[in-house]
Amino acid sequence: MIWSKPQSRIQGYRIQVTSDTEEPMREFSLPASASKTSISDLSPDVDYTVTISAYAGSEESLPISGQITLESTGGTSSKPDASDSVKCSLGAIADVVFLVDGSWSVGRPNFKFIQKFISVAAGAFQIGAERTRVGVVQFSSGSRTEFNLKTHLTRPTLLRAIAALEYKGGNTRTGDALDYLLKNSFSEASGARKAFPKVLVIITDGKSEDPVENYARQLRSRGVEIFVLGIQQANEEQLKLMASEPHRTHIFSVSDFNLIKSVQSKLVSQVCAGVDDQLNSLVSGEEVVEPASNLQILEVASKSLRLMWDASIGEVSGYKVQMIPMMAGSKRQELYVGPTQTQVVVRDLSPDTEYQISLFALNSLMPSEPLTLMQTTQPVKVSLECSLGVDVQADVVLLVDGSYSIGLANFAKVRAFLEVLVTSFDIGPDKVQISLVQYSRDPHTEFYLNTHHDQSAVVKAVRSFPYRGGSTNTGRAMTYVREKIFQANRGARPNVPRINILITDGKSSDAFHNPATKLRNADVEIFAVGVKDAVRGELEAIANEPAETHVYTVDDFDAFTRISKELTQSICLRIEQELRNIIQRRLTQPRDLSFSEVGSRSFRAAWEMDATDVESYLVRFRPENGDDGHYVSMSVPGETLTAVLPHLTPLTRYEVNVQAQYAKGNSLPVTGFETTLEERGSVQNLRVSEETTDSFRVSWQPAQGDVTRYKLTYEPVGDERSRLETTTAGRETAIVLQELQPRTKYRVTVTPEYTSGSGVPLDTEGTTKEAKGSPRDLRVFEETASSMKVSWEPAPGSVQQYRVSYQPSAGGPRKEVSVKGDNRAALLKNLQPGTQYEISVSARYPSGMGDALEGRGTTLEEVAPPKNLVTSDVTESSFKASWTAAPGNVKMYQIRWKSLFSAEAGDKTVPGDETETVLEGLSPETIYQVSVIAKYEQRDSEPLIGQETTDASAAGKSLAVSEETERSMRVSWTPAPGKVAHYRLKYSPIGGGKEMFLKVPGTSSSTVMKRLQPTTTYTITVNPIYKRGEGKARQGVGTTLSPYKAPRNLQTSEPTKTSFRVTWDPSPGEVKGYKVTFHPDGNDIDLGELLVGPYDNTIVLEELRAGTKYTVAVFGMFDGGESVPLAGEENTTLMDDPDSPPVDTS
After folding, report:
1. Which residues form the Fibronectin type-III domain (predicted)?
2. Which of 317, 494, 552, 591 is the least buried, fewest Cβ under 10 Å from its Cβ?
3. Which domain holds residue 340?
């Protein structure tokens, strides 16, 4: 923080830091040498007020103050973005409301971008109860006030409230939100103020589901300036319907939320500019004037100040200095200077008086914001201002009452008082001359003006002149002074101020009125000092006016010291004034004052001048019959003999004085009078609104002056022959023009009318709306699950296209489709099944949209069969059926089954969220047709059809082989159910070989397989064949007989611990021998083998294991091979049998 040091001597500075929070006040002092300091430990987002004052001892200057706010940085030390630092002018004061879209389409993460933008935009203003106020309303399906205009009146609390906004969610109903604003936000109850600019900033990311135009127009007609920020899918047409004009400065669009920052700076700047424009329009309707800067006071005297400033950076026509005294009864001053002048001396001020100094830059009649300082003029210092000036001259006569009533003792006090007066002046022949006259019954000259030529001689004479005594003839004494003292032979000088100081203690014994008048008329300034019994009324009649500075009374002679300083000061001031008057009379004054370019608010003054050494001219003017009588001043360079007098009042007679200013002082003025004209101006801000097909509203801000009424002329552009005219009823500033042609541009001219004539016309253009209407007879037909057709009867007029918008009645995104203007129908596609839609059809005209035709339509339910029927887990009486779910809202599934072999059938249902079931109680080995049907609210789907065959029973799946021979065998099976077309028998050797097929009639259940290989095992499969497929297979094996016959009737006997006998009947045929094999049961490895001849049919097997079961086989051996074995079993014993006991024969 830095400041400029004052010019006066000080002891130091006192600094106070306060805030609007609970932080304690901080106060500290700095030495007089300081001109800057830093303040630490400040909290972010808190407004601090810093006050600084200079002090010297117990005295303290008026304080100056400013505001500091540290903005929170969000935890980053990076350089702030330039778009975050846009600031409005200090004079930008407004009521600002942000209308924020909080619908679902925004999303919580993107809502943070909106909060950031609001913080930047609101932070651009100076926030306070008397500064800018901010409110926020969030909307979606409904609207809510987050905080109103009077809730947060400091910047920190406002920014905290914005950061704490909670995302709302819902649909986008901007029209309802604007209606809510109309009723709630810009009201006095919510903190809105009259005569302050009102701004609405709308932030939205989508199209409104309801109309916005009417509510937005009402807001604009109430003086609310609307800015719109559209994001992502915001509808451009709706943005234009809401925003103020021109749209290029009131509508901003970005494709995504993170791009808001790209337009942030420009948008905030336009909002600031809009507020400034509204403020200027409220003041004068003209552009703002840039103020000057760095106003400084260079010199301070008792009656003058020298000011200097830096020129305005804008275009100016001059500057106005306004001096307002802070003391009642003192005169204020206004001084005008040219555009190139940046310093001026303001004269004729009151000593020891505090002035408020305001400097305005001017552009024509428009002032800037003022620069303001406070300064007190110096008190009058007698010893300096009366005696140091080398050109100060005066002839002073001391007229002292020496009557008996004074007495000798008091007369000594009179001498002492006179000595004080005398020592105040610089005495000499070319400076101040003093004469002393003592009077009682007769006057007596103690010394003349030219008697003493220095101060010491005069003081000596004052100390020693005698007390004479006598009566009090004041009138005779004044006549004596006029006739005998103020004479050239007694030292009186021409063109020198003449002062007479009367000192008396009583009432005059003779007539004094006439002598006093004659003395004053001789250009003698009379001061009267009364002591004790002096009559104040008599003194006031003698002295010059005003009595406050020319008449002094004291109770006794000891009180002279109380008035000596005040009396001396008044005498010195009068000497100075009289010197100026004398100089003035000697200086060449301007002549031939004339006036031209007379208007209602200004006129030009011009004069002639015979002197060439004029430094400048002082032009002073005031209304001739003004209440306060004070002059407005202008300083004009010496080489210029003309000036335009600004800021005048219409129809007013002005007194104008022009004085030439020389190095020695000002000349006498040349005076003239001129009367301003009646003010006849132009209306401001002429605009057309509320356009219809046959009317529109014309409004304006009133013209200057005493307007009697306004005249309006209007005609279609380019068709002046159709011009019409109307007038307002008095001073109204709006009118509705009716019976206009549709879709026609009109030129409208508004001219204010005055008693003295017409003012300046102003014109604009307005266009009526096209004759627009609504389509008729909305019809919905050909509904499907995802589409419907919409038709209508045409709207009136020249329709460019029809816009069909549709949205689910229960809520959801709104979609649009457009068709050409000659179409009468549209197909709405990609709809949700089983959904009711709100449908509106609007005609688009060149001038905008017509009213909507609204209706409803409902799509059919989505009805489709399930898919992918699969059967599994098949048994002889059941199987599982499963499928892929059907689309849409399925209430349940119906499963039907039907035997293809009989009238057997059935059905069942399962809930719509299940996709499988088990079909039970079925017949074995039966083909079933299965149908799955999705059942919806209103109708059923087509069936999903499949087949499955139940499994056969255990008996049904087997087959029997009989009647085997070497080359054939019979196969038999259980007949298959249903109408079998035929059976397919398939067989092949187990060891590999050609697969053979037989076709068996469907009525047969057995057949003989022929031409087989002997001694061969065959795999046999029988499949029932139906018209629609195969049935369940019957399977088994069969073996043909061998041509080599096996032995028969195998017997075992005589088992012992290590042997047993095997016996058999011989094989038929030409057997060549027998092969006997044996091995422990389950142990093929320990196989034993014996060969015997063709005639043997028994053999003992020896060396066997004790207690072991043996398997034995006997093969017949032939020339071509061997027979199949004849098998048997026997167990060896654990021990041999003991010898049999002898048989008793007896």
Report:
1. 1-72, 291-379, 589-680, 682-773, 774-866, 867-954, 955-1044, 1046-1136
2. 494
3. 286-379
